[in-house]
Amino acid sequence: MVNRAFLISGRVQGVFFRDSTKKEAIKLGLRGSATNLSDGTVKVCLRGEINKINLLETWLHIGPELAEVESVIEVDIDQQLELNDFKVS
């Protein structure tokens, strides 16, 4: 199991991005969180098998129907962080 985190920018708030990310992550058996940040981006933290995380990363570049993703950037995350379910905040 590995931890990875991404910052997604563009039109990603107010378009069900976090909830859709949660649904996709659960389908893939991933744990983590999706959080709106004050700068208009969404931070997604994930824990799971690397191939499943890679699949979700590909989806993050598209997002839900109303989203307009401009960029997905991987950011540092504590590898010791325990992510036990999937939270939206």
Describe this structure in words.
The chain is an alpha+beta fold and 89 residues long. It is 25% helix and 38% strand. It has a single domain, classed as Alpha-Beta Plaits, CATH 3.30.70.100. Strands 4-1-3-2-5 form a 5-stranded mixed β-sheet, covered by helices on one side. The longest helix has 11 residues, at 17-27. The termini are far apart. The mean pLDDT is 94.
Task: Describe what is shown at a glance.
The chain is an alpha+beta fold and about 90 residues long.
The CATH topology annotation reads as Alpha-Beta Plaits
Indicate the structural class: alpha+beta
Helix content: 10-25%
Classify the oligomer.
single chain
Largest sheet: 5 strands, mixed
Quickly count the helices: 2
Element-level helix/strand string: EHEEHEE
- Rg, Cα atoms, Å: 12 Å
**Percentage beta strand:** 35-45%
Q: How many strand elements?
A: 5
Second-tier CATH architecture: 2-Layer Sandwich
Overall residue-averaged pLDDT value: 94
Cα(first) to Cα(last) distance is 23 Å
Spatial strand arrangement across the major sheet: 4-1-3-2-5
Number of separate domains: 1
CATH class: Alpha Beta
List keywords for this structure.
five-stranded mixed beta sheet, alpha+beta, 2 helices
What's the layout of helices and strands?
Blueprint: E1 2-11, H1 17-27, E2 31-36, E3 42-48, H2 50-60, E4 68-75, E5 86-88
Parallel strand pairs: 2-5
Antiparallel strand pairs: 1-3, 1-4, 2-3
